[in-house]
Amino acid sequence: MNATLIIAGQEIRDGFRNRWIIALTLVLVGFALSLTLLGSAPGGTVGASPLLVTVVSLSSLTIFLLPLIGLMLSFDAVVGEVERGTMLLLLSYPVARWQVMTGKFLGHLAILAFATIIGYGTAGCVAAFSGENVDPEAWIAFATMTGSSIVLGSAFLAIGYLISTCVRERATAGGIAIGVWLFFVLIYDMALLGLLVGQGEAISGGIFHALLLANPADAYRLFNLGGFENVATLSGTIGMMADVKLPAWALGSVQIAWVIVPLCIAGFLFKKKEI
Amino acid sequence: MTMATLQFEGAGKAYDGKIALDNVSLDVDEGSVVALVGHNGAGKTTMMKLLLGLIRPSSGRVSVLGIDPTGPDGAEAKRNLGFLPETVAFQQAMTGLEIMNFYARLKHADLARNPDLLKRVGLADAAKRRVKTYSKGMRQRLGLAQAFLGSPKVMLLDEPTSGLDPALRREFYDNLSTLKQDGTTILLSSHALTELEQRIDKVAIMSEGNLMACGTLNELRAEAQIPVRIRLRTQDGVASEIANRLNDADINQVNGRTVEFSCTPEDKMILVRQVSELGVAIEDMEIELPTLDQLYSHYRNEGGKQ
User: Fold this and answer.
1) Looking at residue B57, what DSSP letter applies?
2) Pick from A204, B108, B191, B218: most CB atoms within 10 A?
3) Is the distance from CB of B26 to CB of B212 less than 8 angstroms?
4) Top-level CATH class of B6-80+152-222?
5) Fold that domain B227-289 belongs to in CATH
């Protein structure tokens, strides 16, 4: 078996052993179900598909929760193993460093994907079966939302690996991870809004689009809340989307670039790192 | 010329301007057991890491089985290496056997042999327990078991006996003898100098990143010129007479029936012959060669003088 897959397998096994996977899945099932059940109350009267309501509410949940989960899983991945001394032993084996990093990333990705699919899947099924008519477009929107949530989570996994590779101490990595989360999820949008209000005239549409794309969480929001007409109507972002005309492929590739680029930089730095 | 299994050629390593290893040249031949001896920070672990390709030499060259461990064929060299780190750590939530299986897969070793390897280090009963519950000695033994994986041609053991009680140390040295018989090349670092003497072919004495001396114990003894001590037990009343007849020797003590003297390593046999000519007057003789401890402090002090 390939070294990358062996390491990924070990990471998944460790996740089960540490009850990380179970804890994450329970958290996601809990949040997703409560949002679905609470969210379906107003939706029912206007006749909107409950599944679409779920897509909107879960998207908002994703933006906060999955970056946090991604960073929590990964900030420790390199620096923690170096600190504990397990990395020294692992690297004395015939494995390339990129295999160590890719293997661990794939393992964490599998844990994240498992928890998300189970958590959101449960909520989706509950929503779908509580309403009478579920049109196929709603299912597609739901599946796309779940898939891109996993991509968003893995973008922050990759950022976590980058942090973990750069620092010398575990505590530093934890601190930076929290800072990164606050920045992308809260501060960035507030700053952008402030900029628009204050300097709205001076900022061209192009710069505004670039700024939105520069944040994986914003790219995710635009991709899911604007991507499907019915969802956009429900989420009230239709006004915003009239201004922001970014094609789905551009938003999708930005999200994937946010996974690949930090991971590649982390891999490069890890290769140079002296253990 | 056959190439040494492990080779340092003028290898140096500096971390942020601080020199950890300075221009070290050392060959370890196939099938030999070499001990790296030195205090903490003398550069022993740096040498191990260089051999593993975990760090790159700042100057000079390092090779393992003729391969540059940081080069593209580094993985090939590592397949033939077994390594026991100074402080060995494992994923706490895994059992001993699961850890062995994980590392065996990485090394393409036969998983079916793992229970035997665990038995060999005395962990058969603990194989299905989580590493979290292991004592320090048990973790050290698991560390040794993983180093045996895939029957490596070369073993790098960093402080293998630290934290082991005397019984486990003896077990470890038994394992070491078995490896030596199988023709494994072994480089080990240790503080436990006296224990090593009987079990090694060569000693490399390190101090402050410099290789102070390297050779067999006898070569080092000859070079260091540390006197050999000989103690005789004589018949009653002849001790002082015997002391007078051994004119080449440097008499330390004459006490009742005991004569104690020292001599240079070269003069040792001359004096032994003289003593044997004394016949029945000598009841017993003890020859005390300089210990590794003495050699180590000799070379360390020599480093200090420079």
Assistant:
1) -
2) B191
3) no
4) alpha beta
5) Alpha-Beta Plaits (3.30.70)
Tell me which chain B residues have a C-beta less than 8 angstroms from the C-beta of A90.
106
Cα end-to-end span (Å), chain A: 26
**Relative orientation angle of helices A20-46 and A3-17, to the nearest 10 degrees:** 80
Query: Is 0.95 surpassed by the pTM of this model?
Result: no
Sheet holding B282-288, edge to edge: B250-255, B258-263, B228-234, B282-288
Tell me the C-alpha distance between B306 and B302, whole Å: 7
**Residue matched to tokens 């915003």:** A240
Beta bridge partners of B232: B259, B285
Mean pLDDT in each 10-residue stretch from start to end of chain A (275 residues)? 91 90 92 80 57 84 92 93 92 93 96 94 84 75 91 96 94 95 91 80 75 86 73 56 66 90 95 85
User: Which residue, among B112, B31, B108, B49, has the nearest Cα to B76 in the 3D structure?
Assistant: B108
**DSSP characters for A160-184?**
HHHHHHH-SSHHHHHHHHHHHHHII
Q: Which of A7, A88, A94 sits opposite B75 (nearest CB)?
A: A94
**For residue A97, what are its two tokens?**
């460093």
* Smallest CA–CA distance from A270 into chain B, residue: B54
Is A86 close to B79, i.e. CB distance below 8 A?
A: no
